[in-house]
Amino acid sequence: MADDVAKLAETSGTGENTVKVICLGDSAVGKSKLVERFLMDDYKPHQLSTYALTLFKHTATVGDKEVVVDFWDTAGQERFSSMHPSYYHEAHSCILVFDITRKVTYKNLQTWYKELRKYRPKIPVICVANKIDIDYSVTQKSFGFPKKHGLPFHFVSASDGTNVVKVFNEAIESAVQYKEHSDDFVDQVMQLLHEDKFAGDDDDGDAN
């Protein structure tokens, strides 16, 4: 599993006009359904392995620039309680999802957020409450977690599409801005490690 995720991380989100948007949250909160709802028929998910992740590729226009977007979804890997570090590698924004019908998924946001910040301390994060079509009255409630961390917050529904396009466009735009203006130290260190790895591979090849 770890090797699969690391392998994909080497090629995802690294192009000049490519950004990586990750989805986080408990299993079955609707992360994949939200991505699919946003992309509708314009997506070809790449299932790397049963226990790894799903990668959705999308082309978007931000300002006057065409951008390739890699959406990463955990594909059930969250059952292991801690994501492989490569899942976070070079992510430029995050959509943090909970299910309004399951209180525990809201309580677990803090755990996901803490882990995210360990690897990506500065990337923009959008918090979303999914499945509001089941009980629209929830939109009248106030949620402390996004306020506490100063996160944009939206009520969404993968089922009827409420706010889905808005959230993903916001995530893409914030990812582009982050990539253009960030001097993230973690990015720099990871890039150096990445370059050293391939330099080592080349040396091994020459030796043979």
UniProtKB/TrEMBL annotation:
<dbReference type="Pfam" id="PF00071">
    <property type="entry name" value="Ras"/>
</dbReference>
<dbReference type="InterPro" id="IPR001806">
    <property type="entry name" value="Small_GTPase"/>
</dbReference>
<dbReference type="GO" id="GO:0005525">
    <property type="term" value="F:GTP binding"/>
</dbReference>
<dbReference type="InterPro" id="IPR027417">
    <property type="entry name" value="P-loop_NTPase"/>
</dbReference>
<keyword id="KW-0547">Nucleotide-binding</keyword>
<dbReference type="InterPro" id="IPR005225">
    <property type="entry name" value="Small_GTP-bd"/>
</dbReference>
<dbReference type="GO" id="GO:0003924">
    <property type="term" value="F:GTPase activity"/>
</dbReference>
<protein>
    <submittedName>
        <fullName>Rabl2a protein</fullName>
    </submittedName>
</protein>
